[in-house]
Amino acid sequence: MSEVFHNRFPTYDVLEKWDSPSWNDQTRAVVKKRLGEIPDRRFLTETEWEILAAVCDRLIPQPDRANRPVPIVPFIDEKLHKNRGDGYRYEGMPPMREAWRQGIK
Q1: Left (φ > 0), alpha (ψ -120 to 50) or beta: where does 52 sit?
Q2: DSSP string for residues in 23-50
Q3: Planar angle of CA 95, 98, 101, nearest 5 degrees
Q4: Which of 20, 28, 30, 45 has its CA 20 to 30 Å from the CA of residue 104?
Q5: DSSP alpha helix (H) spans, the chain
Q6: Cα distance between residue 100 and residue 76, in whole Å
Q7: pTM for the whole thing?
Q8: What angle do CA 42, 105, 69 make, to 5 degrees?
Q9: What is d(CA 54, CA 56) in angstroms, rounded to the nearest whole number?
């Protein structure tokens, strides 16, 4: 993959909506928590974390956020730690935690 990353919306900043009618108090509270409380590693092993970080860096590049990248892996790890699924599972697939572990290998 030799494509150069292009931000489709270079001037858009979702945080500019903070004081707008688009966001209510609950939205602001959720976003504030996510921005300020990055979960620690509790489910993935160190090696699994590093592999997943490399996969995320490759699939979801953030060159426009080099100084403040979105911490994707900590939130995936938190979801796995809490075993918080989406409420469904495709037939034949293992449980969520097992599926992630198999996929990361």
Answers
A1: alpha
A2: --HHHHHHHHHHHH-PPPP-SS-HHHHH
A3: 150
A4: 30
A5: 25-36, 46-59, 72-81, 96-104
A6: 10
A7: 0.79
A8: 55
A9: 5
